[in-house]
Design goal:
There is one protein chain. About 65% of the residues lie in helices and about 0% in strands. It is mainly α.
C-alpha cells in the first residue's frame, strides 16, 4: 500500500504523508456529505459501522473490492 502513496506523492511533488493527509480530508468530507445519496450512505456505513473515519488504506481496499466484485477491475493489486 505504501508504494501507492509514494507513487502518488512522487507524481504530485509532495510527501506521502501529505497524500495521506489530503486523502483523510477528502474522506471526512465525503462521509459528511454522504447523506444525500443512498449508495454513498451505504458505502460509508459498511466501511465505518462505528461512524469513525476510516483510514485511506481501508477506503482504497474497499474501493478495489467493490470494483473487483463488479467486474470493473482485473488487477486487484494493492502492493
Amino acid at each position: 500500500m505504501e508504494k501507492i502513496f509514494k507513487k502518488i506523492a512522487k507524481d504530485n511533488g509532495v510527501s506521502s504523508n501529505r497524500v495521506k493527509k489530503d486523502m483523510s480530508i477528502a474522506i471526512k468530507s465525503a462521509m459528511e456529505n454522504s447523506q444525500k445519496n443512498e449508495y454513498a450512505k451505504a458505502f460509508w456505513s459498511e466501511l465505518s459501522a462505528d461512524g469513525k473515519e476510516p483510514t485511506a488504506e481501508d477506503v482504497i481496499l474497499k474501493i478495489l473490492s467493490e470494483l473487483n466484485k463488479n467486474g470493473k477491475s482485473k488487477t486487484g493489486s494493492t502492493e
